[in-house]
TrEMBL record:
Sequence similarity: Belongs to the peptidase M13 family.
One GO cellular component, as annotated: plasma membrane
Protein name: Zincin
UniProt entry tagged with the keyword Iron-sulfur: no
InterPro entries to which the protein is assigned, alphabetical: MetalloPept_cat_dom_sf (IPR024079), Peptidase_M13 (IPR000718), Peptidase_M13_C (IPR018497), Peptidase_M13_dom_2 (IPR042089), Peptidase_M13_N (IPR008753)
Example GO molecular function: metal ion binding
Length: 602
């Protein structure tokens, strides 16, 4: 069967000496056409689709008793009850996403509530405020308003809890130079397009402006109508003025004009942002500060207040160190925000909310973003993804480890984990055994390389801690702060974002959790983590055609062995080589580095 599959992917009518690619892959190319909504297509994509079908079957067709019967060993009664509850919570989340009728009936109302929260936290009481652009003129407003730093700081803090990160982002992770300690990293953020270079492409900006104007109008006109028709109260002083005083309907600016202002601000933000290449330098992106030095470098933001507002009660003290990915970015950001009209900042924040959450609303909000995606990726904007595919992606992003438990029960077992571990060990040995043959390596570098390979931690299949995907109680605890409502998909998402934010901040001041994973078990991918010196292979990629416990070893080595070797070499590429065997970022100064420097300079 496996041999037949390989042969069917070949084109044996071609001379391999003339066109080896066509000889090897011609049969596969003939059978498969790149779908109109994809920019690439290969076995990674096919396996991803197969895994999605498995998860779809679990969430739509299976009931808990059928899941229970495939478990290798019976669970104790309390764990069985918890497992059942976890399973139905997972189905509840999925079903809330699948309920398009209810999502359609809500329209833009969920977005209205987020926008009202923004206007309450960041009121701009001038004639150019986006808040006042809904069609009302208030005579006592001033022409422009000064920037309120406390409101700005509170806004950034509040937006982070709904997974919106304008201007700056943060993450708590291993300190690159002390990898056993967690540290707070602050980084650039706030570009809707994939990277700064896109803002220089005129044909992309035309589409971007069109999409932005359409969504701003759809969301904010919706808000105006929602307030008028539903009598919705925002508890905002300006809104009170609307109810109490006037009420002459006028339009100050069109959505295209407002879009122009937002885009100009984003372009300015793009100019001060690091490029992907610059961001890939672990030494240049490690800039240690304390609160005092950070406030001196970037005084527009009330950093002490910002961090304290997000810290949980279990972390009573401000961190003693904060790592910036770029000093210059935060210095320039402070200047840029200071010189930008608050009304433009307010409009930009509103756009950030809309761009992040529009895909969680109905088709009226999804379609414009699909048009933008099509422009960026060169795919057909008219191909709408199947709803179940959208919802499975949402499940994976939100409850990935919980879904992973049931995926593993269905699709990963037997000797698969042990066989994969043995293969990794063998490939590591082969790597080490080849090092003496590399004459351009000096003895010190060779010794360090061997030490690093020997120290690599390998994680296979699924996590057994943080959370333990084999233990329903641990999964319940891991997701305990998420509130599940089968009738409100949007609120389920917001609950998960808040839970994730709180979970991250609780890690501050704690030792690094060496058991945590950055991918769910069903993911068709693998990764190398330099600060932990670990390679991770989820169950999702340990499937045919990459791996099969029934395949001959030479087939597995030719398939998943390639992936293992790829991840292993990440420990020695331009990024990974700067970390030692313990995961510590170090100054590399060896003969190997001198060769690289000489090569790059010529």
């Amino acid at each position: 069967m496996i041999a037949g599959k390989i042969i069917s992917d070949m084109d044996q009518t071609v001379d391999p000496c003339e066109d080896f690619f066509q000889y090897s892959c011609g049969g596969w190319l003939k059978k498969h056409i790149i779908p109109d909504d994809k920019g690439r297509y290969g076995y990674f994509d096919i396996l991803y689709e197969e895994n999605q079908e498995i998860l779809k079957g679990i969430l739509e067709d299976d009931d808990f008793p059928s899941i229970q019967t495939i478990q290798a060993a019976g669970l104790p009664s309390p764990s069985l009850s918890i497992d059942k509850k976890n399973f139905y919570n997972l189905q509840s989340f999925y079903q809330s996403c699948m309920d398009e009728d209810r999502i359609s009936r809500l329209g833009g109302a969920p977005l209205v509530q987020l926008l009202d929260r923004l206007f309450k936290n960041f009121p701009v009481e001038d004639r150019f405020s986006l808040f006042n652009n809904f069609g009302y003129q208030i005579d006592n407003l001033q022409q422009t308003a000064p920037l309120n730093l406390l409101n700005l700081t509170n806004t950034l803090s509040n937006l982070s809890t709904i997974d919106v990160y304008p201007l700056l982002g943060f993450y708590v992770t291993a300190d690159s130079k002390k990898p056993n300690e967690n540290a707070l990293y602050l980084s650039q953020s706030g570009l809707v397009l994939p990277s700064k270079e896109y803002y220089e492409e005129e044909h992309i900006m035309v589409t971007y402006k069109s999409v932005m104007a359409e969504l701003l109008g759809r969301a904010l006109d919706n808000r105006s109508n929602f307030i008028i028709e539903m009598g919705y109260s925002t508890s905002n002083n300006v809104m009170d003025d609307i109810y109490e005083y006037t009420i002459e309907r006028v339009w100050f600016k069109g959505w295209e004009e407002i879009s122009d202002e937002i885009i100009e601000f984003e372009k300015a933000l793009a100019k001060i942002s690091l490029s992907p290449e610059e961001f890939n330098d672990p030494e240049a992106t490690y800039n240690k500060h304390n609160i005092k030095s950070l406030e001196k470098l970037s005084p527009t933001f009330l950093w002490s207040h910002y961090i304290r507002s997000l810290l949980p009660p279990t972390v009573p003290n401000l961190p003693s160190k904060i790592i910036l990915t770029s000093n210059k970015y935060f210095e320039d950001l402070s200047t840029l925000v200071r010189k930008t009209q608050p009304s433009i900042l307010q409009a930009y924040f509103a756009w950030q909310i809309i761009a992040r959450h529009a895909n969680s609303l109905d088709e009226n909000f999804q379609a414009p973003l699909r048009r933008l995606k099509a422009k960026l990726k060169g795919v057909d904007e008219n191909v709408k993804p199947k709803r179940w595919e959208v919802c499975l992606n949402s499940v994976d992003e939100t409850l990935g480890f919980m879904a992973g438990r049931y995926y593993v029960l269905k699709a990963f077992g037997g000797r698969s984990k042990d066989m994969a571990s043995e293969m990794i060990d063998a490939i590591k040995d082969a790597f080490v055994n080849r090092l003496p043959e590399l004459k351009w390596l000096d003895a010190e570098t060779r010794k360090k390389a061997i030490e690093k390979v020997d120290a690599i931690i390998q994680k296979i299949g699924y996590p057994i801690k943080s959370p333990n995907t084999t233990d329903p109680r641990d999964l319940q605890s891991y997701y305990r702060n998420i509130k599940f409502d089968e009738n409100n998909y949007f609120n389920n998402l917001l609950s998960s974002y808040l839970s994730g934010s709180e979970k991250q901040w609780k890690e501050l001041g704690q030792p690094v959790d060496l058991y945590s994973w950055y991918m769910s078990p069903q993911t068709v991918n693998a990764y190398y983590n330099p600060t932990a010196n670990e390679i991770v292979f989820p169950a999702g990629i340990l499937q045919f055609p990459f791996f099969s416990s029934k395949a001959p070893e030479y087939i597995n080595y030719g398939a998943i062995g390639m992936v293992i070797g790829h991840e292993l070499t990440h420990g020695f590429d331009d990024n990974g080589r700067q970390f030692d065997a313990s995961g510590r970022l170090i100054q590399v100064c060896t003969y190997y580095l001198l060769i690289v420097i000489l090569f790059l300079s010529n």
